[in-house]
Amino acid sequence: MTRRPAPLFLERRSYRRRRLADAARMLPVLGTFLLLLPLLWSPQTTPAADTARGGIYVFAVWGGLILAAFLIARRIAAGGPAQRDADAGGEDAGG
């Protein structure tokens, strides 16, 4: 009896879940970059930093990161526990 070769590509659902997990892992890197960006801004007319604009920017980025993390987590959780077990091969990943 011959064995069927393993599929060359992942299933679409599994592939999307893995890419969403990759996006979730990149959020802290993106957040660090975006939150450190105001340090590079130069003041417009005075040597003092423009704290109002910087403060609004920091809180907007913070809120955006929270929203992005919420949406990504919700999409990952939409697969359900049965889908997570199937992606892991049915093995318990815990130590």
Gross morphology: elongated
Q: What Rg is obtained from the alpha carbons, in whole angstroms?
A: 21 Å
**Separate helix tally:** 3
Poorly predicted runs are 91-95
H/E element sequence? HHH
| Largest sheet properties | none
Strand content: under 5%
Average predicted confidence as pLDDT: 79
**Share of helical residues:** 55-70%
- Assign the structural class, choosing from mainly alpha, mainly beta, alpha/beta, alpha+beta, or little secondary structure: mainly alpha
Distance between the termini: 37 Å
Number of strands: 0
Q: How would you explain this protein's 3D organization?
A:
- Helix 1 (12-36) runs antiparallel to helix 2 (51-77).
- This protein has helices at 12-36, 51-77, 80-87.
- The two termini are 37 Å apart.
- It is mostly helical and 95 residues long.
- It has a domain at 12-39 and 52-79.
- The protein is built from 3 helices and no strands.
Topology of helices and strands:
Layout: H1 12-36, H2 51-77, H3 80-87
Keywords:
about 65% helix, mainly alpha
What's this, in brief?
The chain has 95 residues and is mostly helical. It has helices spanning 12-36, 51-77, 80-87. It has a domain at 12-39 and 52-79.
